[in-house]
Amino acid sequence: MGHITVTRSIEAPVETVFAYVDDYRNTTKYMKDLTKWAPVGEQTHGKGAHFDVAMKAGPKVLDSDVLITQWTENKVIAWKSESGFKQTGKWAFRAKGGATEATFDMEYEFGGGIAGKVIAKAAEPFVRMNIQSSVDELKRQTEKLGTKKPAARH
């Protein structure tokens, strides 16, 4: 099992950063190599929301059905895969003055017993680089928003 944690300080209010991450329509804009994050059903955020997820991994596409398992406004969004590529993770947010400390924490598994563990270990530097790049992109995008009010959710 691979495990990656990345924390960044973002010069934007926690409400802005949380709302941006919470809006599923933004996910593929900042998550590197994520090609799909689409709601399954009517619920588009909050605990219990389901998403159909696809991520490029080299020439392969890893599909998952992801369930939001924890959601506390301006604090945390956590998920786990119900099927497909095995992953659990969470975004944690903490206000620091007018800024936000955002932490992305994810565990993933390639399956296949010992072979899967070897693949996960070999892939970890690339996965870590993608996650760091994604969190940096979230930082860039939300700092551009600054203190603007988040767009209303549909």
Walkthrough of the structure:
With 154 residues, the protein is α+β, with helices and mostly antiparallel strands. The protein has one domain (2-145): Alpha-D-Glucose-1,6-Bisphosphate, Chain A, domain 4. It is 30% helix and 44% strand. The protein has a seven-stranded antiparallel sheet with strand order 1-7-6-5-4-3-2, with helices on one face. Strand 3 (50-57) and strand 4 form a beta hairpin. Helix 1 (14-22) packs across helix 3 (113-145). The mean pLDDT is 88.
Walk me through the topology.
Blueprint: E1 2-10, H1 14-22, H2 27-30, E2 34-39, E3 50-57, E4 60-72, E5 76-84, E6 86-96, E7 99-109, H3 113-145
Antiparallel strand pairs: 1-7, 2-3, 3-4, 4-5, 5-6, 6-7
Helix pairs in contact: 1-3
List the keywords.
3 helices; 30% helix; Alpha-D-Glucose-1,6-Bisphosphate, Chain A, domain 4; alpha+beta; 154 residues; seven-stranded antiparallel sheet
**CATH class value:** Alpha Beta
Largest sheet: 7 strands, antiparallel
Proportion of residues in extended strands: 35-45%
Helix content: 25-40%
Distance between the termini: 36 Å
- What is the radius of gyration? 15 Å
Per CATH, which architecture?
Answer: 2-Layer Sandwich
The total count of helices amounts to: 3
Q: Could you tell me the mean pLDDT?
A: 88
- Sketch the topology as an H/E string, one letter per element: EHHEEEEEEH
Question: Which residues sit in consecutive blocks of at least 5 with pLDDT less than 50?
Answer: none
Mind telling me the CATH superfamily name?
Answer: START domain
How are the strands of the largest sheet arranged?
A: 1-7-6-5-4-3-2
Shape descriptor: globular
In total, the number of strands is 7
Q: Give me the secondary-structure category.
A: alpha+beta
The total number of structural domains is 1
